[in-house]
Design goal:
Strand order of the largest sheet: 1-2-3
Largest sheet: 3 strands, antiparallel
Order of helices and strands: HEEEHHHEHHEHE
Number of helices: 7
Length: 200
């Protein structure tokens, strides 16, 4: 059986460096506990950057996933499927909204929010074409797409990927005075993280 060092070396040799993971190679997990390839246990306090905050291998979620996988694995949005309407209805009710737009990732959600805000700005608010502005708080991490890194202040996420998407003004996180000063008649949205996970 390969050691943690062997597996880390192979991953480093064949995957592009985007993160700097801890030198722990997880083999199994249950609830909040991880077990590495050597059998050492760790308490998982990262929760998949909050994406897995229900714990690993939650019995009810695993059973629901297995039931769905036994029926159909995946359908594209080119088709309707029998679970989608109920999902959207319940999610809209939970959020107190008329409609929802499910996404695969947080970055997709942010990109869609920026597009929606800009379109609203042009069609409803009357912002002149190509002049929509989104004010963002610095120290953010919303993903790694070209638009999202255009308003990143993290040199590692941003450096060497320009030219950047225009239309964003970055203000210091937590500086309400700077935020107010940045607002203009062309502002269509303010984008910030209440808790900055990557920066905090």
């Amino acid at each position: 059986m390969p050691t943690a060092e062997d597996l880390i070396a192979a991953a480093d040799a064949h995957s592009a460096p985007t993160y700097h993971p801890l030198p722990v190679v997880v083999a199994t997990a249950e609830g909040a506990w991880l077990t590495d390839v050597a059998g050492r246990r760790y308490l998982d306090l990262l929760a998949g950057y909050s994406a897995l905050n229900f714990g690993h291998r939650n019995r009810r979620l695993v059973e629901a996933a297995e039931r769905q996988l036994a029926r159909v694995t995946l359908t594209s949005r080119a088709f309707h499927h029998d679970r989608f309407a109920a999902f959207c209805t319940e999610l809209a009710e939970l959020c107190g909204m008329e409609m929802v737009l499910p996404m695969n990732t947080g970055t997709e959600a942010v990109e869609s929010a920026v597009k929606t805000a800009r379109k609203w700005g042009y069609r409803v608010k009357g912002v002149p074409a190509e002049m929509a502005k989104v004010v963002v708080a610095g120290g953010n991490f919303h993903g790694r797409t070209t638009t999202v890194i255009s308003f990143s202040t993290d040199p590692e996420a941003r450096a060497d990927f320009g030219p950047y998407t225009p239309g964003f003004e970055i203000v210091p996180y937590g500086d309400l005075t700077a935020m107010r000063r940045a607002l203009t008649e062309n502002t269509v949205a303010v984008l910030l993280e209440p808790i900055q996970g990557e920066s905090g």
